[in-house]
C-alpha cells in the first residue's frame, strides 16, 4: 500500500493509514491522530509492572485484579477502533507540473470559507496547513453517491432527507455564499443519516471586495452535469444563488430515481423515458410532490428557477405538508381520480360562501375547496396552498 510522506509540520500530529481517493486537485488520506496515543510508552510501562506483579506473585489478588483492569482499560483506549481518525486532503501537482496559482487559491478559498461558517451539516476542517496546501477534515463513512438507492421511489423519505440539505444551503445563502458545486460526490451521510455538504473549493462570496478565483464560469466553477446551462459563459460575479438551487434539484432527482445523472432538465420529458420520473414510477402515490419541487429548481430557463435555497425550503415544506397528512399533490389539469376522464370543477370554497369559514377556516398557508367531476360525479376535497410565507410542515411537529 502506497502512502505519502507527510511534511513534518503535518506528521507531528497525523499518521497516514491509507489513501481514500484522488481527484483533479489532489489526494485524500485516512489519518490517525497521534496526540491520542502519545502516552503509549507510559501504558507499556504500566503493563510491565503488571507482568512483574503476576509473575512474582507480589501482593494480594485484589492488587492483581486492579492492575489487570487498569491495563485493559488503557489498551482499549489505544485500540485501532477507538483512535480518532480523520481525512487529510493534500494538493499534488498534476502531470508532474507545479501547482498553479488557481489550485492554491482554491484550497485557500476552501480553508477561508470553512473558518467563517458553523453548521452541523457542513463538513468541518479540523486543522489547516496553508503553507503545505493541505488540511485535515472530518472523516465521513460514505458519500450520497454510494447511498442513493436508499431513497429510490420513496417520496417522503427523499424529501425529508433532502430538506436537511436544502436548509444547510439556505444557511450559506444567508451568509452571501454560493457553493457552486453541489452534487452527490460532495455530499456525505453522517451516522444519523443526515446529509453533510463538503468541498468549498470554488464557493463564492457575494462581496465586491473579495478576490475572485476565476473570471468566467467556463474556466472551472462546477461539474458539468450538475450546473445549469443558463449559467454558462457568465462572469463569476454574475452567478447567483439559483445556481445552487438547480444543483439541489438534480440531487433530489438522483436520490429519488437512484440514477447517477439527469440529462439537462428532462425529468418529465416524454422523449427521455429513462429520465422521466412519471415513466420510471407510473401511478406512484406522492410522485407529484417530488415533481412540484423539481419544476421550480431544475429548469430550462433561469427566470423559472427559485432565487435561493430559502425559497426552495418553503416549497419542500409545502410538499411534505401534504404527504405527511396522507394527501397527494395533483397536476394542474385536475383530472378526476375516480374515472380519469373528467376534470374537477369547483363547487364550494369558503371565500364565496358567507359563514362557511366557521367550518372550513382559511389558514395563513392554505384554504379548502370542494370539487366535483362532471363526468362521473366524484366529489373530492382539496387543500390549496396560497401563501408561501408559512411552511405547511413543521419538522418539530410533522402532524401540524
Describe what this molecule looks like in 3D.
There is one protein chain. This protein has 400 residues and is of the alpha+beta class. The protein folds into three domains: 1-139, Phosphorylase Kinase, domain 1 (2-Layer Sandwich), CATH 3.30.200.20; 142-323, Transferase(Phosphotransferase) domain 1 (Transferase(Phosphotransferase), domain 1, Orthogonal Bundle), CATH 1.10.510.10; 333-400, N-terminal domain of TfIIb (Single Sheet), CATH 2.20.25. The protein has ten helices and 13 strands. It has helices at 8-11, 40-56, 61-77, 101-116, 155-174, 217-220, 242-257, 277-280, 287-294, 309-323, and strands at residues 14-22, 26-33, 85-91, 125-129, 134-137, 142-143, 177-178, 187-189, 195-197, 204-205, 345-348, 366-372, 379-385.
Rough outline: globular
What CATH calls the topology of the largest domain is Transferase(Phosphotransferase), domain 1
Determine the number of helices (DSSP H or I, runs of at least 4 residues). Answer: 10
Percent range for β-strand residues: 15-25%
Q: State the major sheet.
A: 5 strands, antiparallel
Mean pLDDT: 77
Which residues form runs of ≥5 with pLDDT under 50? Answer: 207-221, 387-400
Structural class: alpha+beta
End-to-end separation: 55 Å
* Total separate domains: 3
CATH class call of the largest domain: Mainly Alpha
Helix content: 25-40%
CATH architecture of the largest domain: Orthogonal Bundle
By DSSP, the count of extended strands is 13
CATH homologous superfamily (4th level) name of the largest domain: Transferase(Phosphotransferase) domain 1
Give, in spatial order, the strands making up the sheet with the most strands.
1-2-3-5-4
Question: H/E element string?
Answer: HEEHHEHEEEHEEEEHHHHHEEE
Radius of gyration: 28 Å
